[in-house]
């Protein structure tokens, strides 16, 4: 076990009692860094670890407790790092182990914890295990680390079942045997370059535990577990009863959320428990709150990444229901709730909140953007007012919208694998604008960045927002600071207030009141003294698309 880092012992935040310091993550603000898009110091147009170290001062200024790094391990990058060929090495695109160690050291010096993605459901097809499986015979120990099966039909030319990949197309790919003849099929719930591991094989868990200790011993403070509702597969691999959409699945889908996954989480947790002060958060795409709650029972994941606020409309009833159900789910098992407005897989909130259909009638693009931005301001104040752990996706604090990229710029494997029917997730992964008046806005010295940055982002750079007290960045900084400094944010529950139609209002036990106006009309505020508003009041009223914090 590593020595306790001083960073884990500190609890400078007013609303976190010092005795809870080992559970610092219970009320933390965690900032997701998508490494390709954050900051590029090597000048190749792709972000890297040196670029991240260079910007730690910015993250300290923003006031976040921790970063979550999307995958930085060695990878052929078929899915931008979610296809890992060596889970215990840093990909040269991002740096090396020495740079990673330096990142941890410098982040800890600034009281910022470092957490990283782990990808246990699948490996890259370039992983040595998969290469040896391809060269081995059916039924061999090498093949048993993955999910190989004979095809259906007399000649085995039909896939073993009807599963489709989350990225589109079949979830099975057939390989040739050593003699060049068509052989077995292997399962890949994502791209063909991401073969699924066989979690019934104990070697798979043992290797993951080795990987976890490798990073924890280097000082990592936790993990985000990719596809945490995957891994276990149902006996007999039954067919899908109805076709699944690209990038979506329902709770009756046999590909995910199989009961065996909970034993895997218990085994993962036992390693985490060797390292006090660390946590793991699982990516859990399930619809039912009961199903979600199972993952965060006391001996499984510390936290479940909760997509509810990232998927509801800007609608008071939907937002209130998302909050109530999320709180009930975590409370039922004594777990901590989590919140986010977006990540690298879902459209950015500014764009999601723009009016559509009849509501958009007669509005210019600039007006739509202004409304989406105002609503995103309101919603980060709702998120940060809630008890639990708040996740922020890099660029949210700048109010970045999704980008409509041209076809020839798209690199998400979803675009190819879906046969160009789904444009994928590139639009929310465009590099961050830091400074200056034209792309690449200080992100890199290379103008040909891995995804093009729109020229319109000159008004959204960090530089242009830092000194502007009305900017999104300033709102984030103020809101995060208040959340830490004010005792009114204490308490694990929310009490709902009566609110005008189309609005919500809730109170934290410490005394904070949060009021959101998602209606089309200005509304009066609940009684109290205003701490922060997302948009200035008009005639003493909370304007449409705004949130106020009161005490
Ligand atoms: C979830 C990750 O967030 C996503 O980006 C990735 O494509 C899939 N898992 C497959 O690893």
Automatic annotation (TrEMBL):
InterPro entries (alphabetical): GH (IPR017853), GH13_cat_dom (IPR006047), O16G_dom_2 (IPR045857)
Stated family: Belongs to the glycosyl hydrolase 13 family.
Domain Glycosyl hydrolase family 13 catalytic span(s) in chain numbering: 32-429
Descriptive protein name: Alpha amylase catalytic region
A GO molecular function held by the record: alpha-amylase activity
Ubl conjugation among keywords: no
Alphabetized Pfam families for the sequence: Alpha-amylase
SUPFAM superfamilies named among the record's database cross-references: (Trans)glycosidases
Example GO biological process: oligosaccharide catabolic process
Keywords annotated in UniProt: Glycoprotein
Gene3D superfamilies registered for this protein in UniProt: Glycosidases, Oligo-1,6-glucosidase, Domain 2
